[in-house]
Design a protein that fits this description.
With about 375 residues, the chain is an alpha/beta fold. The chain is built from 16 helices and 9 strands. The chain has 2 domains: about 10-155 and about 350-365, no CATH class; about 165-345, Glycogen Phosphorylase B (Rossmann fold, 3-Layer(aba) Sandwich). This is UDP-glycosyltransferases domain-containing protein.
């Protein structure tokens, strides 16, 4: 891959690398202090920091958009793609931090490098309308990029107990164990009027308890009651709670009354659901979400709500999948197994990352 790109004088990656180059001009000077470019997670940074006062490496976060752009002929405008080459040009080790799943990354890289060739796992695919735990995927991604891939673990922090949204916890406390679903589609996707209507009718038809977090684009003045089907809030009564704006997702998922998570399958939401052992009712919208949803189904920890041939949600299907996940034993059992597996591993994966970084940096430091 050729990187014929201008130097971005104001980009964070370039300025950090330039600082490292200036510090290391003299052969007798020590390498720069650890440099973290991008949001790589507090747990990861805290694990690395105490290990070495001077490790002299650059950690670059790679987002979904970065991975897609890497597959294009001229990925010039994204500084985090440019950063590894800049680091190498200054003789500074660089580690790319993938803030997404190995299955999604390897899938899209496979599409770019092997067009027309079936992906190694048939359960991971995209439907026509979507074109617009992962050991084997990690191995395959390693083959594709010709680099060692080291899993870092879920990087999900435990919820902090606060008095915020106390009414939600009180509502949950009044419900039977595993009798309610949590409905949320993240902070970056906003449902269309049609999607909101079908989901509303779907949760109503399911006859299960639910908490639904509804968000509207910032700056738009939307009346919640007008956005939902006429009479919806009155008809659900105490069986449902609709919250506008924000709700403590991890606290809700951890609650014993939650038996399912109606989710868009953003990677952070998938990790949180697995950490707390909650099966997923998958409704992917765009980007990496369809691949994440297929992974959830392949693991047996959830069921995807199938759309019609035009990609539209249907209320009957929404209701059917919600009831299925709450009633059937398999998704619950698989979700519980994933949670226990994460608990048993603890910080072992993070420790492995730390050891890899220290090995890389000690190799570099021998040159000084």
């Amino acid at each position: 891959m050729s990187l014929r790109t201008p130097v971005y004088k104001n980009s964070p990656s370039t300025s950090l690398l330039e600082e490292g180059r200036l510090r290391s001009r003299g052969r007798g000077s020590p390498p720069p202090l650890p440099t973290v470019a991008g949001t790589v997670g507090g747990k990861f940074v805290l694990a690395l920091a105490p290990r070495s006062e001077r490790v002299g490496t650059v950690v670059i976060e790679c987002s979904f958009f970065g991975c897609i752009e890497c597959t294009q002929p001229n990925p010039s405008f994204l500084p985090w793609i440019l950063a590894p080459s800049l680091a190498r040009s200054q003789n500074i080790p660089a580690t790319e931090f993938l803030a997404l799943s190995a299955s999604m990354t390897s899938f899209f890289m496979h599409l770019a490098y092997n067009p027309g060739v079936e992906y190694l796992s048939p359960e991971i695919y995209l439907r026509d309308y979507e074109v617009q735990i992962e050991a084997k995927y990690i191995d395959y991604l390693s083959v594709l990029v010709k680099k060692k891939i080291v899993p870092v673990g879920p990087l999900v922090q435990d919820p902090v107990e606060k008095d915020e949204k106390k009414e939600i916890i009180e509502w949950l406390n009044g419900k039977e164990p595993s009798s309610a679903v949590f409905v949320s589609f993240g902070s970056k996707y906003f449902l269309s009027k049609e999607e909101m209507q079908e989901i509303a009718y779907g949760v109503e038809l399911s006859m299960v308890n639910f908490i639904w977090v509804v968000r509207f684009p910032q700056g738009e003045k939307v009346n919640l009651q007008m956005a939902l089907p006429k009479g919806f809030l009155d008809s659900i009564g105490d069986r449902g709670m609709v919250v506008e704006g924000w709700a403590p997702q991890k606290t809700i998922l951890k609650h014993s009354s939650i038996g399912g998570f109606v989710s868009h399958c953003g990677w952070s939401s998938v990790m949180e659901s697995m950490k707390f052992g909650v099966p997923i009712i998958a409704m992917p919208m765009h980007l990496d979400q369809p691949v994440n949803a297929r992974l959830v189904e392949a693991l047996g920890a959830g069921v995807e709500v199938k759309r019609d041939t035009n990609g539209r949600l249907e209320r009957e299907e929404v209701a059917k999948v919600i009831r299925k996940v709450l009633v059937e034993k398999t998704p619950k059992r698989k979700a519980k197994e994933l949670r226990e597996n994460m608990e048993n591993k603890g910080d072992k994966e993070i420790e492995g990352v730390v050891q890899e970084l220290l090995r890389l940096c000690s190799k570099k430091n021998k040159q000084w």
